[in-house]
Write a structure and sequence with these properties.
Blueprint lengths: L2 H8 L8 H23 L9 H30 L2
Helix pairs in contact: 2-3
Amino acid sequence: MTLHDFVDILSMDTPAPGEGSVSALAVALAAGLASMVAHLTVGKKGYENVQERALSLPIEAQMLKDSLFLLSMRIQQLFMRL
């Protein structure tokens, strides 16, 4: 399902996606942004004191993003069965 499809279905009179799916997707998007910022910080002048964290954060954020995205889709699938 594309993001456009997800938003279209969200606007209809279906039981899912709902608040659980949307919340999980919102946090997955936030984790993706956190990963992007960490990647952009690596090697930048003035951020030497956070380089270790900037290198480890993308790994954690990617795992969180993937888990929450799958959770969002799973919640939607479960509610569509109702």
